[in-house]
Amino acid sequence: MKMDNLYIPVADGLEMVEKALQNIAEVDIPILAALLEYAVQSTGKKIRPAFTLLCGKFYNYNLDKLIPMSVGVELLHVATLVHDDIIDESELRRGKPTVKYAWGENAALLLGDYLFAQAAKSVATTGNQRVIELFAQTLMTISGGELAQINVLFDAKRAREHYYEWIAAKTACLFSTATESGAVLSDAPEEVIQALKNYGYYFGMAFQVIDDILDFIGKEAELGKPVGSDLMEGAVTLPTIIYAESNPEHDILEQIIDKKDRTEVAETMEKIRKSSALDKCMDIARDFSRKAASQLEILPDNEYRNILSGLVDLMLERKK
Amino acid sequence: MKMDNLYIPVADGLEMVEKALQNIAEVDIPILAALLEYAVQSTGKKIRPAFTLLCGKFYNYNLDKLIPMSVGVELLHVATLVHDDIIDESELRRGKPTVKYAWGENAALLLGDYLFAQAAKSVATTGNQRVIELFAQTLMTISGGELAQINVLFDAKRAREHYYEWIAAKTACLFSTATESGAVLSDAPEEVIQALKNYGYYFGMAFQVIDDILDFIGKEAELGKPVGSDLMEGAVTLPTIIYAESNPEHDILEQIIDKKDRTEVAETMEKIRKSSALDKCMDIARDFSRKAASQLEILPDNEYRNILSGLVDLMLERKK
Fold first, then answer.
1. Does this complex have an ipTM over 0.90?
2. pLDDT digits (tens, 9 = 90+) for A272-288
3. Would the CB atoms of A139 and B114 count as touching at under 8 Å?
4. What's A21's DSSP letter?
5. Looking at chain B, which residue has its C-alpha nearest residue A117?
6. Sequence-separated (6 or more) residues with CB below 8 Å from residue A296
7. What is residue A39's three-state secondary structure?
8. Which residue of A lies nearest to B115 if distances are taken between CA atoms?
């Protein structure tokens, strides 16, 4: 199986999502139209809307509701990236200059706000109060989770637990909203909704752990950003935490938080790469993936379930 | 009549809005709790939620729906102010340090996002799709309108028209959402909904013109920010536009946009104050107010209508 298998059964829906995203850029305000076109072009692989659609396949595949929900999920994702790039002062995103870098901070701030609103409006057109509230709660979780990272007093003993809370809010939450909403809008039974919600959550946790591993061993051309970005920005992710747990004599966490110079970051990266930390991270990603897969047992045994099951393994092998 | 009259018939509802706003600050993330408490404390006069409640008085005064809507309207207002203060680099808001100034830019950015989401969630609990979509559209209008101000090529001939578009998006839109949603949620007939929506719009237009006049003649202690803030920040508002129209030989607009030094700003302010520009602005504010008042004719002739009518005159006389 390939990652593309996710997209095949929902190709009709994804095409409509794509068109809806293009239409959003058709507005009267020139700068807004240009910004929206730029942002929509960079929406990447569309894995989240594909999940919403695929999770809608098990019961009533109601595109009238699934399309606006998928559009909302993707726009929310794009909006959070646009605001993240302000916070992280990132210059590149998927190999392209960030909105903040290309258009300035005020434009990026307002574009993000506009995209949140456009996402909310799209979700509102489903007329389904449960997913409308879920959508709003997702943005509360994401922004609240990012806020919790500001000025946090770093506690080495709580580092791993803290990391899991952080990635649950920033990544797993939106994956679980994507899968849960697909189930809700296709009138799935409540136990299926919960299973697909949990599948999305654990998938998202594994996805982020892999992301954080790739920041150590990926290739810049594939990642679309420099390797080692996290350490350079002072972000303590799982590989570093696991290395620090095994090497308590090394003041690595303090060093990273103090944002030392590039040479020291390169040395620290090399130490982590040579240690067993990355293997241990892969074990943790596999563990989350297994939890995701185990959710699928109560689902109807069909091609869609096979795809969801296969995706879990593929995601572990991804290189970008 | 006093401004307080707006609040008397809806005192029960406003107290519930106040409590709901306090409850929002009760979250587990310490920095978020502190930020929310700070933001909620500075929500000011609550004129917008009062409008929603008062416009809900004409028919079915259904507090189960009107309260969450009023909370959403106020939170949206606060969220836009928090983000505006990042863009304008303002240090003071209502006499208190802005969130950006007191807590830093990243905290202000994320707090604004969180407040948008909390506002959307509150509005979602009304279960009324029309106001949920109206709410999302309002944030699109506000952020799109602010974006339209960025890098705009200034055209003196279009200055007045451009100003009206700008204040419609940044101020009148939220007032009309406040009044329209109150009418919708109280099951008012469609013509009443339209009348109250238009009332809010014209009230908001007059409100912003008065705001822009006060930036020239108000007292710092009453405004909670320095007089002349607009000119200092390079914002071209109606008094300046009208002065420029009558004095085409003076390159005042270019001067302001180039953000000249404080002495020159003080001189320009003095020239505008001594001209007839501010009187002409008052005429325009009165004109918007009359349009607001004329909307009320089709409403039931009762105390609530009298209050809405009286507010229009009071607003023209406000000093802060």
1. yes
2. 999 999 999 999 999 99
3. yes
4. H
5. B136
6. A195, A199, A305, A308, A309
7. helix
8. A140
Closest CB from B27, B135, B144 relative to A32: B144
What pLDDT is attached to residue A247? 85
Cα distance between residue A122 and residue A255, in whole Å: 44
Which among B146, B114, B119, B149 has a CA at the least distance from the CA of B131?
B119
**Nearest CB to A29 within list B27, B138, B144:** B144
Binary contact (B124, A132; C-beta < 8 A) = yes
Both tokens of A91, joined, read 């210059």
Give percent above pLDDT 70 in chain A. Answer: 92
Place of tokens 């309260």: B67
- Under 8 Å CB-to-CB from B123, ≥6 apart: which residues? B68, B69, B72, B131, B132, B135
- Residues in chain A closer than 8 A to B116 (CB atoms): 113, 116-117, 139
Domains parsed from chain B with CATH numbers: 3-317 (1.10.600.10)
Entry pTM? 0.94
- Cβ <8 Å between B150 and A27: no
- Pairwise CB contact (< 8 Å): A110 & B150: yes
Dump pLDDT digits (tens) for A1-45. 677 778 889 999 999 999 999 999 999 999 999 999 998 886 678
The first and second tokens of residue B312, run together, are 């229009």
pLDDT per residue over A60-115, tens digit each? 999 999 999 999 999 999 999 999 999 988 888 877 888 898 889 999 999 999 99
Task: Say how far apart CA B92 and CA B74 lie, in whole Å.
Answer: 20
Q: Inter-chain contact A144–B104, Cβ cutoff 8 Å?
A: no
| B120 with A107: Cβ contact below 8 A | no
- Spatial contact of A179 and A193, defined as CB atoms under 8 Å apart: no
> Which residues of chain A have a CB within 8 Å of the CB of B26?
none
Kindly give, in sequence order, each residue whose CB lies less than 8 Å from that of residue A196, ignoring residues fewer than 6 positions away: A55, A179, A180, A182, A183, A188, A295, A299
CA–CA dist B60, B43 (Å, integer): 27
